[in-house]
Amino acid sequence: MTKLESTKYSVLDLASVTQGHTPADSFRNSLDLAKKVEEFGYTRYWFAEHHNMANVASSATAILIGHIAGGTKTMRVGSGGIMLPNHAPLIVAEQFGTLASLYPGRIDLGLGRAPGTDQLTAHAIRGENFKAVHNFPRDIQRLQQFFSAENSHSNVRAIPGEGLEIPIWVLGSSTDSAMVAAELGLPYAFASHFAPTYFMDAIRLYRENFKPSASLDKPYVLSCVNVVAADTDEEAERLATSVKQFFMGVVTGRRQLLPPPVDNMEDIWNMHEEAAVNQMLAYSFIGGPAKIKKQMEAFLDKTGVDEVMATSHIYDHQARVHSYKLFSEIFK
Known about the structure:
It is a single chain. The chain has 332 residues and is α/β, with parallel strands linked by helices. The chain has a single domain (3-329), classed as Luciferase-like domain (TIM Barrel, Alpha-Beta Barrel). The chain has helices at residues 3-6, 23-40, 61-71, 89-102, 119-126, 136-147, 175-184, 199-209, 233-239, 241-252, 271-280, 289-303, 317-329; strands spanning 8-13, 44-47, 76-83, 107-112, 168-172, 188-190, 221-229, 284-287, 307-311. Strands 1-2-3-4-5-6-7-9 form an 8-stranded parallel β-barrel, surrounded by 8 helices. Helix 8 links the parallel strand 6 (188-190) and strand 7. Helix 2 (23-40) packs parallel to helix 13 (317-329) and helix 7 runs parallel beside helix 8 (199-209). The model has no long low-confidence stretch (mean pLDDT 93). One of its GO terms (cellular component) is cytosol. InterPro entries: Bact_Lucif_Oxidored (IPR050766), CmoO-like (IPR019949), Luciferase-like_dom (IPR011251), Luciferase-like_sf (IPR036661). Keywords: Oxidoreductase. This is Luciferase-like monooxygenase. To bacterial alkanal monooxygenase alpha and beta chains.
């Protein structure tokens, strides 16, 4: 079996809102996509928690996870991730305990330490707790305690949640998160789809410092990447102008709903914006099946990751479904 054939492939969905459409449309498209990618052999389908972004509708992450899990049968569904400083660990334990009770053996809990938004919105979310010191490793351990059967003797219990096997993942975009995942012996998911700078250093540190735990005996690395696949390289490049405009909004602060593709980005961005966007999109796979397969083989040889999670900001829903279909086929 080749490295490509032994690598799991999954989906990250931000429930992107496209121009001319609403979040309700995004949620319908997410469910349709989830049903299709389950047929295509994808391992898991994650949502990312973001707030105060007109073009991203995945703010109520746990609710969307339930929506997708209820409409699919076998695929794992989870968070990539829940931003732990925004929530009391007990509430997260109860929410995911509820999900795992409804959909046993199918729920993942990925955890991040960022707010998933701007400082003003973070203040609105956290209220009086805004200035509280958040200890990410300690909060993960508190979550593990709430999920443990031993916690049944505690004065504070997560019902439902207690005694359930809910896999916890550490998410990150820096070397700090790598050390947390290694110390706790948890699987590590890296946000290489928008923060490529520390990716290679982070996964090296994670592997070198990994301590086996009750949940994981050896390091497990998931890398999130951008994927825009189409029947031809030219069509894929055209479709990818949507994600380039999306990230241009991130770079410039002028966010907009996900726009349709254009024939020429040169009419839209300047060279500084182009350089910044291309830096963020360093781990992107854009092209027809042959090109993407060759790029993915090289990527797996270089990184040795165990799983690849594709996120695809494609304006047209059917083109997005087709992209995920083509991407799945290169692993078979």
